[in-house]
Amino acid sequence: MSAALTILGKDLRLRLRDRSLLMFAVVVPLGLTVLFSLIFPDEEGFELTAAVVDADGGQVAGGFVDGVVPALVDDGVLTRVQVTDADEARVRVADGELDVAWIVPEGFSAAVAAGRPAELEVLVAAGRTLGGEVAVGIAEGFAAQVEQVALAVAVDAAVTGPASPERIEAIATGAETAPEAIAVAELVAGEEQRLDFTSYMAAGMASFFVFFVVGTGVLGRLEESQHNTLPRLLASPIPPAAVDLGKALGSLVVGIGSMTVLVAATMLLLGADWGPLTGVAVLVVGLVLAAMGVMALVGGFARTAEQAGNFQSIVAVVLGVLGGAFFPIPGEGVLVELATSISPHGWFLRGITDLVATGQVGAVLPAAGALLAIAVVVAVPAVWLQRRSWRW
Description:
Elements: H1 2-16, H2 19-39, E1 48-54, H3 59-74, E2 78-80, H4 86-94, E3 100-104, H5 108-113, E4 121-124, H6 129-160, H7 165-177, H8 197-226, H9 229-235, H10 240-270, H11 277-300, H12 305-323, H13 334-341, H14 344-358, H15 365-389
Parallel strand pairs: 1-2, 1-3
Antiparallel strand pairs: 3-4
């Protein structure tokens, strides 16, 4: 055991001097989490700076300008900025002062009333892709409502003949206030305690890059073999198992250390919610053990450190995508369940989600058990491959 601890100390000193390890362990995953959080903000913090120009002044235009837009402001979706005309709106959108702007052109209401094509212009600032999609969706929703009113007027005219302006107004009011024939409800389990986007990305990036961090132990063993350091070490009165144990402990310590730093940093700097820390610790240990087993198995098929690094990168990326480390895997089904069940990333994210949703440490047990099972399953052939490599 003393020999394994000596090797552990030597490996830790070498890895702490390795700047690339620091990049993979902390800087890159934390930086990507910050970047994705800025690009895709949470729904609760999403708000557009917008303006609306009514060059029409008609009744239909008023439904959007005085009805839809103020409702969105009250809901906290929009911050409305007053502009004098369409030219000012275009300039301020082009300069990035406004995220979006809607322009209702002159003759809009008359065109709708006459059944002619009408256009509601949507301006979007450069780079505001998400805001643009929201603005277009709002305009399309209003257009659908206008079409509903127009259809009701057309049907009434076909049955009773041309309607008076008062009749048209009454039909429009009735169509707008009529209850929906079909109500669509979105239900999110544990919505008050769901995993927000920042927390999800923090957990996903941490789980993804820990595979590269623990993989350095396998790479270090192959590099020492190539440089003839390992054969001399095995020629000394040190059991080969002690050598592998020391290097495995190094991967375990570095992996848990990097995950701990990322958990603390994302909580303090980004406000990420990981849930009770005891449950997080259980999942972190399970994930690191699974990552160690997978990377050791993959490295066992390589002859050089460069080859092992390539193999490990491919496997880490594939498992990360299958497990939803970069984005949640949509839909359900046998293939989706199979994909997430073979990925340690998927089980780790599932465990964190359950932990945050329930606030109970026991909620992580299924995911932690799956991670440990993966670690054991891949460790058996990995150990066999390493024992075979002892035969020089």
